[in-house]
């Protein structure tokens, strides 16, 4: 009996030591820039390996409804992009669109779809910033494009693109680089397509929300500023260190969660995180600038409670960061939470809605009970978010 107990103790000790050793090696790996880049951005996981992005019909689009083209970035990288024509605009011009050659185009300005965007004074352009992993054609992104344009199928165009290092785009992802990517896409919309900012909506999901926060802050702080019609963010996160502290693989296994219980140790480890993406801070800066100068803005934050990739609790924090910037002297998270009790609308199985209005802006928080991380992108809530921006009441 003693030998059996001894063997069990020995086996347990060896197993524990092995697990500790593996975890230590893992921690060593995540300190490297290469590993961090692949772990945060997942750009090597395309999910469209056996499909031709230059044939969007493979993803369910009508023939020549999507125009694949490229956008040049200021540092020399090239981004792969899709311009997606709204369904009703396609129907009206179907015959002429079918006569054009299909596939990737080197000069998008020569295409009818582009001219329908540029020459329509009522056209709306949604700039789509997708999340980590995959390409413009991956997973729930294609239903998302349809949901975005569903409310105005004659007017809402979608421009989506792959960041550097994703899909057919050149380079490798990083916070400074992806910020430049976003700038290049916005400048294309403003200067090449000639769409004024009041007819541009920025939509983003997951990692794309971090890029969006950096962009809208940048343009709000410019002189003169550029303020878009509205911003919609699905499954946003506060910043990468906070995400790492709360992230669990498959919603179960924490990565650095145990270290978050020791603030000093976690702050030390956070120093090794290369790209921090401080979205919460940037949201506050964006709202504060708009409020100080009396500019109109609309901000919608959406998150599903069953999202096991990015915990839904990040969105109330980002909502607080935005609201805090509207209150002279500020408001604590706890104070706002108490205030929300009186203005929150309970929609039962659909979740809850809180809307914070000022003389200048509307900040809306929608917490769904269901929708996971990606499935929600094709839900009617996305269409409604767009329509609220276009038809404010």
TrEMBL record:
<protein>
    <recommendedName>
        <fullName>AB hydrolase-1 domain-containing protein</fullName>
    </recommendedName>
</protein>
<keyword id="KW-0472">Membrane</keyword>
<feature type="transmembrane region" description="Helical">
    <location>
        <begin position="20"/>
        <end position="42"/>
    </location>
</feature>
<feature type="domain" description="AB hydrolase-1">
    <location>
        <begin position="126"/>
        <end position="324"/>
    </location>
</feature>
<dbReference type="InterPro" id="IPR000073">
    <property type="entry name" value="AB_hydrolase_1"/>
</dbReference>
<dbReference type="InterPro" id="IPR029058">
    <property type="entry name" value="AB_hydrolase_fold"/>
</dbReference>
<keyword id="KW-0812">Transmembrane</keyword>
<dbReference type="Pfam" id="PF12697">
    <property type="entry name" value="Abhydrolase_6"/>
</dbReference>
<keyword id="KW-1133">Transmembrane helix</keyword>
């Amino acid at each position: 009996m003693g030998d059996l107990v001894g063997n069990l103790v020995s086996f347990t000790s060896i197993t524990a030591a092995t697990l500790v050793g593996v975890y230590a090696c893992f921690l060593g790996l995540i300190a490297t820039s290469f590993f961090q880049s692949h772990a945060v951005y997942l750009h090597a996981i395309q999910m469209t390996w056996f499909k031709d992005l230059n044939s969007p019909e493979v993803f369910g689009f009508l023939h020549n409804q999507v125009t694949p083209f490229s956008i040049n970035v200021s540092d020399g990288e090239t981004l792969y992009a899709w311009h997606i024509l709204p369904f009703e605009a396609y129907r009206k011009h179907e015959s002429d669109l079918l006569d054009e050659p299909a596939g990737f185009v080197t000069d998008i300005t020569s295409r009818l779809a582009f001219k329908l965007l540029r020459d329509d004074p009522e056209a709306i352009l949604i700039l789509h910033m997708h999340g980590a992993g995959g390409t413009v054609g991956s997973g729930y992104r294609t239903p998302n494009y349809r949901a975005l344009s569903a409310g105005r199928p004659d007017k809402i165009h979608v421009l989506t693109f792959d960041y550097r290092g994703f899909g057919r785009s050149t380079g490798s992802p990083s916070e400074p680089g992806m910020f430049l990517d976003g700038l290049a896409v916005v400048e294309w919309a403003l200067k090449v397509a000639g769409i004024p900012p009041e007819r541009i909506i920025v939509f983003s999901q997951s990692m794309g929300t971090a890029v969006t926060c950096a962009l809208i802050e940048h343009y709000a702080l410019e002189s003169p500023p550029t303020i878009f019609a509205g911003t919609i963010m699905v499954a946003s996160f506060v910043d990468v260190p906070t995400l790492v502290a709360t992230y669990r693989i498959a919603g179960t296994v924490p990565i650095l969660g145990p270290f978050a219980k020791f603030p000093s140790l976690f702050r030390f480890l956070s120093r090794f995180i290369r790209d921090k993406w401080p979205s919460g801070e940037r949201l506050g800066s964006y709202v504060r600038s708009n409020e100080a100068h009396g500019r109109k803005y609309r901000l919608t934050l959406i998150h599903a409670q069953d999202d096991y990739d990015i915990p839904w609790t990040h969105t109330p924090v980002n909502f607080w960061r935005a609201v805090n910037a509207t209150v002279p002297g500020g408001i604590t998270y706890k104070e706002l939470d108490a205030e929300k009790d009186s203005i929150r609308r309970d929609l039962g199985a659909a979740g809850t809605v809180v809307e914070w209005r000022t003389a200048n802006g509307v900040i809306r928080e929608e917490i769904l009970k269901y929708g996971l991380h990606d499935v929600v992108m094709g839900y009617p809530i996305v269409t409604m978010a767009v329509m609220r921006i276009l038809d404010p009441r």
